[in-house]
UniProtKB/TrEMBL annotation:
SUPFAM superfamilies: BAR/IMD domain-like, SH3-domain. This is Endophilin-B1. One of its GO terms (cellular component) is Golgi membrane. It is a peripheral membrane protein. It comes from Sinocyclocheilus rhinocerous. Its main location: cytoplasm. PANTHER family: DREBRIN-LIKE PROTEIN-RELATED, SH3 DOMAIN-CONTAINING. It holds the Pfam family BAR.
Length: 392
């Protein structure tokens, strides 16, 4: 290109016309201003690009929000991020449940394990520690089974795709530039061939014009070769990028599997926590020699035997041996209720419900305010108040 520029400058020095240098000036200006013809990608390729961008954006959002759910403390997240970047192991950190359980156990020692409050603190504290341990296991498993694959995609596969896409864009720009140069060279070659004037008295103009035409023919061959090379490189890079983009389908399959594993781990975690809490409720519901007795009678029911039960003893409707058929409706106070949602009975003392049905409900002394006794024909059992709309 330098030798051609030198020849053209010499031609300009001895030629009154400046068509040749004007061509190069216009050509470079068009390429610099981005006016060159743009090579368009096919529709399938554009769809692959759009799908890949969508996958990257939503994967990033889901990853960040999952981090927030698993670790709500932003300071702890920053600390874990720094340790990861420094390639160091994150130091073990107790969960909030474990810390709370430890505080309760230490408080029980101060108040005395033999006191009602101290013995209850021991039971609740031990349960909190187990809940904290379950949470720790859930966080570790979720990080391995769900967060790690998402992060590997963002930091691995997506970086490779982005790198190849940038390379493809560079190849496209090179191809567009070659197309623009070829178009300009053809135009200039045509003009150079039409410049000679055989009637002119100065034969030097004809000689110089003929030399310029030969130079443009040489330049045309050179640009055509560069265009073929640029087209080959562009096609090769487009094929590589297309294969990577089509691999997004495999990424979706992998993320789907990881998502199902995350749900399973989450379900196991909540089930385990529910089990621990049920055990704690049974522990707190047992009779204890240290339980406190109620010394006053509830208003309106001076002879209610449940008034003389310990505070932490189960009510007649909460014992495992409750005979629901022995519960009798009061002489007055029954009401009709409309069922709002389906409800499956957890045990034989409860009554299953179906949405929109009408049942008769009433309460009995000592019953939890969140529950009522429901009757449907010959069936009877406890029903949750939140599932009902009481009718007047």
């Amino acid at each position: 290109m330098d030798s051609l520029g030198t020849k053209l400058c010499l031609l300009k020095r001895y030629h009154p016309s400046d068509n040749f240098c004007t061509f190069f000036s216009e050509s470079f200006t068009e390429e610099k201003l981005g006016q060159a013809e743009k090579t368009e990608l096919d529709t399938h390729f554009e769809n692959l690009l759009s799908r890949a961008d969508c996958t990257k954006n939503w994967t990033e959002k889901i990853y960040r929000q999952t981090e927030v759910v698993l670790q709500p403390n932003p300071g702890a997240r920053i600390e874990e991020f720094l340790f990861e970047k420094l390639d160091r192991k994150v130091p073990p950190r107790p969960t909030n449940g474990e810390i709370l359980g430890q505080f309760m156990l230490e408080a029980a020692k101060e108040f005395g394990p033999g006191t009602p409050y101290g013995s209850t603190l021991i039971k609740v504290g031990d349960c909190q520690r187990r809940l904290g341990g379950a949470e720790r296991e859930f966080l570790q498993t979720s990080s391995i089974s769900f967060l790690t694959p998402l992060r590997n995609f963002l930091e691995g596969d997506w970086r490779t795709i982005s790198k190849e896409r940038r390379l493809l864009e560079n190849r496209r720009l090179d191809l567009d530039a070659c197309k623009a140069r070829l178009k300009k060279a053809k135009t200039a070659e045509t003009k150079a061939a039409a410049v000679p004037d055989f009637q002119e008295a100065r034969p030097r103009n004809y000689v110089l014009s003929a030399s310029a035409s030969a130079l443009w023919n040489e330049e045309l061959d050179k640009v055509s070769h560069e265009l073929r090379v640029a087209q080959t490189e562009f096609d090769r890079q487009a094929e590589v990028t297309r294969l990577l983009l089509e691999g997004i389908s495999s990424t979706h399959v992998n993320h789907l599997r990881c998502l199902c594993e995350f749900v399973e781990v989450q379900a196991m975690y909540y089930s385990q926590c529910h089990k621990y809490m049920q055990e704690l409720q049974r522990e707190l519901g047992r009779r204890s020699p240290h339980s406190l007795e109620v010394n006053s009678h509830p208003a309106g029911s001076p002879t209610d035997p449940s008034a003389f039960l310990p505070l932490n003893s189960p009510s007649p409707l909460e014992t495992d041996t409750l005979q629901i058929e022995e519960v009798q409706p009061p002489a007055s106070g029954t009401r009709k209720a409309k069922v709002l949602y389906d409800y499956d009975a957890a045990d034989s003392s409860e009554l299953s419900l179906r949405a929109d049905e009408l049942i008769t409900v009433y309460t009995v002394p000592g019953m939890d305010s969140d529950w009522l006794i429901g009757e449907r024909g010959n069936q009877k059992g406890k029903v949750p108040v939140t599932y009902l709309e009481l009718l007047s």
